[in-house]
Structures are given as structure tokens and as C-alpha cells.
């Protein structure tokens, strides 16, 4: 993409960043007028700038720490985005995935490859120094996901409502079983899973666009490539792309082996993912499943331009960030994100 450094950060300073965000905001307005990805109608008690009086530096601290960490680790945006998703889809956006109690949520099989916990710890430590006991870990997870993705643009890609509180009960691995979409899921299963969280078809397609960055374990991909010891390629896979996947994920693959979710630009948050999925180059079976449904395929075509994708993604992230939140006097504000307050 023109105007970017090798790390993906836009050149041109705040003027370029402000221009790009303005374009996205304009597209967001058009999307709202078409009512294609509207917000949940009920406001669960969240607000913009929730900490304006109680901790006015909160969001700037989150952004500065997150950006410093992303500068040192370009893989972090995908990890923090996935952390937020996995938190919200299990018991709601309550930071339960961060807890380290015995047999906690993070020990469930779908969460074993989730990362970014140390980044949240670092952010929480700095926020606590400025405003002890004020800012929830759940809000930090939501803000850090936004800020990590936004690093390449030099400005926030979407607004985050805040005011979430943290879960006050131990999390359990059993809570995550069946709650998170499987990389092998078909279209019907994906749509039902999203619907159970109050999210619709547009949200499913828009949030699947998060796979424009990050990696998948080869164990999530090899069933599409091999059957036993023989090659048996999923017919939905483009043949050339299947060969590329086989190169990255041989049979058998090491347990730690990974492959990019987006074969074209896995380190850049962009809309090219959709075109590649429609061309049979979706890495996961669950991504390929979207192209098999006419309505979802049309949505992917509609979101294939950057501004359309960023606008729809922004709205769907806001919806996801409202799922079963704790607000008001519910829950607690954890002193440490990995453990429940005992006093």
C-alpha cells in the first residue's frame, strides 16, 4: 500500500491519518443510512469517554502502551483482536478470559492459542499507577484491541464505548466449550453462533474480516489438505493456494506450525481478504464457508473496498463489545486482571 513504511505505519503524519479516518467516518454514515450493520438497539450502560472525569488519562495511556508494544511486536494486533473476540463470545465482554484460576477459561482448547495477556498486564499496570481501582480490565481489552489494529493508521479506526466492569466469579474452561466458532464450522453453524450473541449476518462477514491479519495453527488447516497419509484437498480450495498451504503445513506438521490467515497480506489490516476468500483462497474452512452462501458472498463483495470494510468492521466491533457486559454496580474493577478481588 502506498504511503506506508515497512512496518505498516502510515507516513505523512496526523494529516494523512485524519484524512483516512474521515473517509471511514463518511462511509460509516452511508452504511448507517442503509441500516446494513446497525448497532444493538438497547444501550447496556456504556458510554464514550466514560472515564473523562474519573481517569481522564486512561485512554491515552492504553494507546501509548499498546502502540509501543505493537512497534516491538507486529503480531500483537491480531492477538489482541482475537483476545477481545474470545472474551466477548464466552460469558460476554467481562475480561473472564484473563483469569488464572484453576481450570480457567483460558485453559479451554479453543483458547490455548490465544495470546496478548502480557500486553494487557503492562497496560493495566500503567493505568493503575494513574488511577487505582478505576478502569476495568474488560475496557482495557476492548481499547487495546482497537488501538493495536489502529497503529498502522496512526489514528483510531473506530470508537470504543467504555464503562464495562469485570466478572467477579472464577472462569471455567467449560464455559468456552461450544461458545466459540470452530475453524471447521459450516455457514449455518457460524450464523447460529453469531445470532446467539445478538450478532447478524453482516456482523459475521465483517468480523470474519479480522482474518486479514494473524496466523492459524496448521492443525486447523491440514484437514482441508490431507486425509490420513494421502493428499485429499478440499474442493473449495484454489489448487495453487492449496499447494502453498501444503508447503507451510506438511503432513504431519509440527504442533507449533502456523500459516497466515490471509495469504496475500497477513501483516496488514486491509480488505483484500474478501477477494481472496471468494477466489478459493480462504485459509480456514469457516472462511471458505462464507463464499458458499449467496448473501454472505455478496456482502464480501460489498466490503472489498477499504472504506466499506473499515466502516462495517467498526460498527460490528462496537456491537460485539456490548455483548452481555457488566455495568453499574455489577461485577467489579479488578486490581489485577488475572485474579478476582478478594477484598
In short:
The chain is mainly α. It has 13 helices and 4 strands. The chain is 43% helix and 3% strand.
> What integer value in Å does the Rg equal?
20 Å
Largest sheet: 2 strands, antiparallel
Strand-pairing-aware structural class: mainly alpha
Mean pLDDT level: 89
Judging from the principal axes of the Cα atoms, what is the shape?
globular
CATH class of the domain at 57-214 and 261-321: Mainly Alpha
Q: What is the strand content?
A: under 5%
The count of strands amounts to 4
Helical content class: 40-55%
Helices and strands, with pairings:
Blueprint: H1 13-34, H2 58-72, H3 76-88, H4 117-130, H5 137-150, H6 173-176, H7 187-195, H8 201-208, E1 215-217, E2 226-227, E3 230-231, H9 239-248, E4 258-260, H10 272-278, H11 285-290, H12 294-302, H13 306-320
Antiparallel strand pairs: 1-4, 2-3
Family: Belongs to the peroxidase family. Classical plant (class III) peroxidase subfamily. Belongs to the peroxidase family. Ascorbate peroxidase subfamily.
GO molecular function: heme binding; lactoperoxidase activity; metal ion binding; peroxidase activity
Active site: 86
Amino acid at each position: 500500500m502506498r504511503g506506508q513504511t515497512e512496518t505498516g505505519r502510515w507516513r505523512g503524519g496526523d494529516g494523512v491519518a485524519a484524512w483516512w479516518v474521515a473517509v471511514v467516518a463518511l462511509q460509516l454514515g452511508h452504511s448507517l443510512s442503509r441500516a446494513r450493520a446497525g448497532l444493538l438497539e438497547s444501550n447496556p450502560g456504556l458510554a464514550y469517554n466514560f472515564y473523562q472525569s474519573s481517569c481522564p488519562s486512561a485512554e491515552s495511556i492504553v494507546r501509548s502502551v499498546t502502540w509501543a508494544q505493537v512497534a516491538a511486536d507486529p503480531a500483537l494486533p491480531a492477538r489482541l483482536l482475537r483476545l477481545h473476540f474470545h472474551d466477548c463470545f464466552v460469558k460476554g465482554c467481562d475480561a473472564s478470559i484473563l483469569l488464572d484460576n484453576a481450570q480457567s477459561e483460558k485453559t479451554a482448547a479453543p483458547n490455548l492459542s490465544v495470546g496478548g495477556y502480557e500486553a494487557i498486564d503492562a497496560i493495566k499496570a500503567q493505568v493503575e499507577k494513574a488511577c487505582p481501582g478505576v478502569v476495568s480490565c474488560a475496557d482495557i481489552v476492548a481499547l487495546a484491541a482497537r488501538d493495536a489494529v489502529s497503529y498502522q493508521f496512526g489514528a483510531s479506526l473506530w470508537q470504543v464505548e467504555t464503562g464495562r466492569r469485570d466478572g467477579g466469579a472464577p472462569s471455567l474452561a467449560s464455559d468456552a466449550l461450544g461458545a466459540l466458532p470452530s475453524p471447521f464450522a459450516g455457514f449455518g453453524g457460524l450464523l447460529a453462533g453469531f445470532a446467539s450473541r445478538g450478532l447478524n449476518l453482516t456482523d459475521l462477514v465483517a468480523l470474519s474480516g479480522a482474518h486479514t491479519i494473524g496466523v492459524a495453527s496448521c492443525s486447523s488447516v491440514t484437514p482441508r489438505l490431507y486425509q490420513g497419509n494421502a493428499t485429499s484437498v478440499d474442493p473449495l480450495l484454489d489448487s495453487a493456494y492449496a499447494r502453498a498451504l501444503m508447503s507451510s503445513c506438511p503432513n504431519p506438521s509440527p504442533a507449533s506450525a502456523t500459516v497466515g490467515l490471509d495469504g496475500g497480506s497477513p501483516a496488514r489490516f486491509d480488505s483484500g481478504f474478501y477477494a481472496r476468500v471468494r477466489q478459493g483462497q480462504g485459509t480456514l474452512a469457516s472462511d471458505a464457508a462464507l463464499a458458499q452462501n449467496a448473501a454472505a458472498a455478496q456482502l464480501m463483495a460489498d466490503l472489498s473496498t477499504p472504506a466499506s470494510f473499515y466502516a462495517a468492521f467498526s460498527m460490528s466491533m462496537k456491537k460485539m463489545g456490548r455483548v452481555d457486559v457488566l455495568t453499574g454496580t455489577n461485577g467489579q474493577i479488578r486490581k489485577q486482571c488475572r485474579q478476582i478481588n478478594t477484598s
